[in-house]
Design goal:
Blueprint (H helix, E strand, L loop, with lengths): L2 E5 L12 H7 L3 E5 L16 H11 L4 E6 L3 H10 L4 E7 L10 H7 L9 E3 L5 E4 L1 H8 L5 H10 L3 E2 L11 H4 L3 E6 L7 H7 L8 E4 L5 H4 L1 H13 L1
Parallel strand pairs: 1-2, 1-3, 3-4, 4-8, 8-9
Antiparallel strand pairs: 5-6, 6-7
Helix pairs in contact: 1-10, 2-3
InterPro entries: AB_hydrolase_1, AB_hydrolase_fold, MES/HNL
Protein name: Pimeloyl-ACP methyl ester carboxylesterase
GO molecular function, one term: methyl jasmonate esterase activity
Length: 236
């Protein structure tokens, strides 16, 4: 059975994997979710966080061979971590996540998308250091197929997101390219347009691209289905 390291996206934390971890364990796998610096219970000030700090947190959590799953923004730090040191990274799984293009920051990647539906749901702080989720648009953009309890749980836990890690360009090399990858595309995503997800996954082998009829948050709306897909990815 596989071990999964779960890496959250913007404004989230380890808490967002609450419903997925039991489903993975029921299939015989083990899983660990982490808080990236300045998220969840991590006390790092948002203004001090870099993309490489995110990668370092991933490396610190890799205590055994693992399939590393990155959600949304999490695609950038898992890619950077694999490029810096792939030890213990068996495979990268992008869950409706950004797959870095050469010499692009995540912000630049987002701007390459044909639509910007996420903008209505986030607001940048006056100092420009962070941005935050606007509660009045959170369900529509991130959680439209999630339960009231799940949405309330998410809104109780979302935190400001540091801008600098998302404004950092990366160019990934041969070390990253040697790590196996898979993509899970969310077809009803209202945060990252599904057609842009398909573009980012265009150079993945077709058998390594999975589609789910969910929102941006399948770890809430279909944790059993997501666990089944991850289990199949682990076996291939």
């Amino acid at each position: 059975m596989a071990h999964f390291l779960l890496v959250h996206g913007s404004c989230h934390g380890a808490w967002c994997w609450r419903d997925l971890i039991p489903e993975l364990e029921a299939l015989g796998h083990s899983a660990k979710a982490i808080d990236l610096p300045s998220h969840g219970y991590d006390p790092t000030p948002a203004g001090d966080v870099t993309l490489d700090d995110y990668a370092a947190a991933i490396h610190a959590a890799l205590d055994r061979p693992s399939i590393v799953v990155g959600h949304s923004m999490g695609g950038y730090p898992i890619s950077r971590a694999a490029d810096l040191n792939p030890t213990h990274i068996e495979k990268l799984v992008y869950l409706c996540a950004y797959v870095p293009w050469d010499d692009h920051s995540l912000i630049e990647m987002r701007l390459r998308a044909p639509r910007q539906p996420i903008l209505k749901a986030v607001q940048k702080a006056e100092d420009g250091v962070t941005f935050s989720v606007l509660p009045e648009h959170a369900r529509e953009v991130f959680y439209h197929d999630c339960s009231d309890e799940q949405v309330a749980f998410a809104l109780e836990n979302v935190c400001p997101q540091a801008v600098l890690p998302q404004d950092t360009k990366v160019t990934l090399g041969a070390t990253y390219a040697a790590v196996p990858r898979a993509y899970i595309l969310c077809e009803e995503d209202s945060a990252i347009p599904p057609e842009f997800q398909a573009e980012m996954a265009a150079d993945f082998p077709p058998e390594d691209v999975t589609r789910m009829a969910t929102s941006h948050s399948p770890f809430f709306s279909d944790p059993a289905g997501l666990a089944a897909h991850l289990s199949r990815i682990a076996a291939t």
